[in-house]
Amino acid sequence: PEVVAIVPAAGVGKRMRADLPKQYLTIEDKTLLEHTVHYLLEHPSINKVVIAIGEEDGYFHSTSLGSDKRIVVTTGGKERADSVLAGLRVTNAEWVMVHDAARPCVRHEDIDVLIAEAISHTHGAILACPVRDTMKRGTGDNKIETTVCREQLWHALTPQMFKREQLLNALETALDKSLAVTDEASAIELAGGAPKLVSGHADNIKVTQPEDLALAAFFLAQRNS
Ligand code: C5P
Predict the structure, then answer these.
(1) Where is this site: Transition state stabilizer (predicted)?
(2) Is 30 in the pocket of ligand 1 (CB under 6 A)?
(3) N or C end of the chain, less CB within 10 A?
């Protein structure tokens, strides 16, 4: 099917300790946002990308993205979920795929599997990868309370793909009730749905800390070679 990609890019990236939001950091003269959006648009099922940028964004205008007819820009909100909602409201596509601006290293082969799984399940699907480390739950003063069985634990990645209307309703309800949603699947879960976990490559990292940038550059070069 045709899928519209929604790219929330309205974060301020506090954890990066950089002068500019992380989606505008560059690898090989291109911002992370440009890497991400260009690669999404190269996928045969994605012909349109909606980007949600911050209200006070002072960087988007100097990227190459503004003049691309396949790109729609809207204003994001306070939380990531607000930005995604803003994006959902400017498209009427049947299927949407939400993908972090800060995850430039995603691969088309993973997107292919995600699409196939999302359209064959009732509650959509997300890319994820199984947890590798031993997992501990800590107490307030950082003592180990317990070891959590990692057998069924996954890292939630993006893209996450759903029917637009289903995601829109789920996010609106979650935000109305002030429930915490840090990804799209959690809104669907709160509405009683069970999105499918699709095993993706672990190099689809979210650039969050300064040291992630070199890693992302390495993974990008590998993917594109
Ligand atoms: O902060 P975090 O790493 O969870 O951000 C994930 C993605 O969500 C980033 O691409 C960021 O720009 C975006 N975001 C947003 N609006 C917010 C907060 C984050 O679009 N209010």
Answers:
(1) 15, 22
(2) no
(3) C
